[in-house]
Amino acid sequence: MGVPEPFTAETGDQHKAAKTIDDFFQETITLIKASHKAGPLHLSIESGEIVLPGVVTDNRVTYLIYRDRVVACVMDTRTELNHVHYDFFRNLENLFE
Predict the structure, then answer these.
(1) Could you tell me if residue 95 is inside a domain?
(2) Hey, CA dihedral for 77, 18, 11, 2, is it positive or negative?
(3) Is 2 among the domain residues?
(4) Global pTM?
């Protein structure tokens, strides 16, 4: 799969993005597990709203944390037409040193 290309979904169709997001995080976890040495895996997925000074927005960030580092994230932001745009990021560099 790799890092998905950014895409935009119409409002109300965000559920269609759920599989892509889930697969992206699951693949990242699989890559970490394959490269992980002995010991427990401390992984967590967290999500929150993006807040501008004093204003809660409809924008969100969902991210995977491993060893106190964000190793993958998905940003979903609203477009001017009120659609939802998804951007994907992954950084596993220097993770296992």
Answers:
(1) no
(2) positive
(3) no
(4) 0.87
Q: What is the spatial distance between Cα 29 and Cα 42, in angstroms, rounded to a whole number?
A: 11
What DSSP designation does 18 have? H
Burial 3-19 (b: 16+ CB within 10 A, else e): ebeeeebeeeeeeebee
Which residues constitute the domain of residue 47?
Answer: 7-34+41-90
Cβ burial of 44 (10 Å; 0-12, 13-18, 19+) is exposed
d(CA 23, CA 86): 14
Beta strand 69-78 pairing with 84-90: antiparallel
Chunked into runs of 10 residues, the chain (97 residues) has average pLDDT values of 91 84 95 78 91 86 93 94 94 80
